[in-house]
């Protein structure tokens, strides 16, 4: 049977949830610095204390590092606390000589510093080691020293631990009644102060007492109360110990497979932590389980390992426990000679240990072995000793005390809960009074805070918007710079294409009228034509010259619009006046084709753009409408202002219209110009010029058309800015 907690071999350290945050405060350089500070050393010692139950090797490392750094700067408190933590690990792993050396030096330093808390902790650790070695008087003497210090300094936390460990020693000696006295003393203080980990430890200790008294259901109840707390605080060693205790209860109840499951859980943890005491104890339990399952070789193997560990590290309880286990196994297989040999050794260790439960088990195994060997008188004597010891374990005083303490514990728990509820009610009432008094002030503060917050937010928002705008501009600049080479290449390509188009247009469209004039002058020079023939040819030549002149005006203006200072010509002007001038200029041409030009422009419509650009656009749209209209067709020029401060100008005709494919290509580049209704020719570039000029005036142009119905060109330009006077 394992009672590691009760023996004091595994006193549970409190695992604080801030362990990870503590560890993060230590940078790698902090552990290597030549002149470490005391804060770093204190953190190392805190880590060592908290790591003990989850990873003893880490606890030892941090404790050693603390001692090393503390000696460099002669920080006595750091040295003493580091020694206390390394001593704890040393006795835990069976190195009692090293542990004694650590504790002695720590006690001397704590005394020189008048550090009573450190001194009491050292005494408690010393007592745990001596309890493991079954030197109970020494263990009790150190605990008595610690108890006096705690009482004088009103240190209830350490006093609770002290009472718990005194109870452990009395339990180890088989004095269950006294053990219960001290367990419950500690438990009442722990519950009063909500020392969660400590009262979980004591629950386990009481569970082991019940286990020894063979009150198994109640023992399991206490174990389960304890394990809930330890699983929540990640105290792996405590969980392993309780799993072993539960396994032992199931073993006693002959539930061997379930017992093995709990024991293997415990074994996994104690192996990882290199817990020699825990390993030895669990191996004995597993040996007993497999012996009852009739797997004798496996049982003996586990017991061999257990006894070897217990002998190497002088763990008296585990020595006696393993020897009794051997005796039980050999009795099961009726090898009474070996059973007798191990039972005798077990009894000797049990007497040294002073534990009644172990002594009673040794007496039982001796009784069986002696009976098997025919030593009936001795066997009867051992049977009487076994009965006497079992009666000692299950004495009425212990049961009565347990019942009394449980009643008192329930009363104390209810009293504590009621007191806590009353405190909570009082606190709520006080908070309500304070809230009522301060509500107006808080409300005013909230309003002021909101105003200030809104102001700060608005100011920061404006700043952020400015920063975002600046960042966006910079981003655009970067993107422009990034694509600059491609853009330049594309522009050069577009310019080359445009150059080729202009050269082609000039070569084709200017050559014809110039050739006509040259031919006419040649004829005049040679007297090849009469005066009447000359008069007949002049209107046609003039018509071609007029077309060429208009084309050159448009081309030259468009080329001029490509210059960087084009924006300087933007001004306020009247749409009505500009359109009227163009209508007057083409009125005669419209009459010759029998076309009606209609001006529906409002008198008060003012635009903000370059008037020459808009004039060229309107001229091109009118000449295009005239070109593709015939007798009785109507060309209507109208305009209006939209809600978004844009002026829409429309040139609508009832002419021949155009098919969709031609309409879709109209503003995308040079198109193959068709002849007009009277064989008028064109360059195919006029609409491209119009689109470019409108867009330079911050507008857009589009067209709708249906063959046989007519065409409608529309474009937008900005309305006049407020407060700007019209330029006559």
TrEMBL record:
SMART domains: HATPase_c, HisKA, TPR
Keyword annotations of the record: Kinase, Membrane, Phosphoprotein, TPR repeat, Transferase, Transmembrane, Transmembrane helix, Two-component regulatory system
Entry superkingdom: Bacteria
EC identifiers of the protein: 2.7.13.3
Positions of TPR repeats: 160-193, 200-233
Sequence ranges assigned to domain Histidine kinase in this UniProt record: 505-721
Transmembrane segments: 438-458
InterPro entries: HATPase_C_sf, HATPase_dom, His_kinase_dom, HisK_dim/P_dom, HisK_dim/P_sf, Sensor_HK_Regulatory, Sig_transdc_His_kin-like_C, TPR-like_helical_dom_sf
Coiled-coil boundaries: none
Reaction(s) this enzyme catalyzes, per UniProt: ATP + protein L-histidine = ADP + protein N-phospho-L-histidine
Presence of keyword Disulfide bond: no
Enzyme type, top EC level: transferase
Designated name of the protein: histidine kinase
Organism from which the protein derives: Mucilaginibacter dorajii
